[in-house]
Write a structure and sequence with these properties.
The chain is mainly alpha-helical and 152 residues long. It contains nine helices and two strands; from the N terminus they run αααααααααββ. It has one domain. β1 and β2 form a beta hairpin. The N and C termini lie far apart (94 Å).
């Protein structure tokens, strides 16, 4: 009969098992790609604070980063959109939870209509309305040049 000491030597601790599993089955460069994604993580245009916070937590969990560190909280706040970030810094949040709750309130209250308005992206620019008409500035005078084209 085996003693408990020999059985304990056969099995390694759980963290080393997980590390060995990742080394064996994860693709090459997985950790480096995850670190680069973490480094450049920002709240995207049209992305609400709640979905960004979910993504932030997911990436931190995958990398084994503790969310209660001051550097991580600073990264979270710095990754939010500018108009939220500046207002949120006034509250000096100490946890991701308090920062995300305040950021959601700020987002719902202060989102500028022009910031993520869907029609803004769809509106053609002045020169795109009629590509044959161009305005040329020459020596302080504006000239309208109408292009011509022929069908072949």
């Amino acid at each position: 009969m085996r003693s408990s000491n020999s059985v304990g030597n056969l099995l390694s601790p759980w963290p080393s098992f997980i590390f060995a599993l990742k080394e064996q089955f994860y693709p090459l460069g997985y950790k480096q790609k995850a670190l680069m994604d973490w480094q450049y993580l920002r709240q995207g245009r049209g992305q609400d604070v709640q979905s960004f916070t979910k993504e932030f937590r997911k990436q931190a969990l995958n990398l084994g980063i503790a969310l209660d560190l001051p550097e991580v909280i600073t990264k979270y706040i710095g990754s939010l959109r500018r108009y939220i970030r500046h207002s949120l810094l006034l509250f000096e949040p100490t946890t991701i939870d308090s920062a995300s709750v305040k950021a959601i309130h700020l987002e719902n209250r202060e989102t500028p209509e022009w910031y993520d308005h869907p029609k803004r992206a769809e509106q053609p620019r002045k020169w795109e309305k009629n590509p044959l008409v161009h305005i040329v500035r020459k020596r302080g005078m504006m000239k309208k040049i109408v292009g011509s084209f022929t069908l072949s």
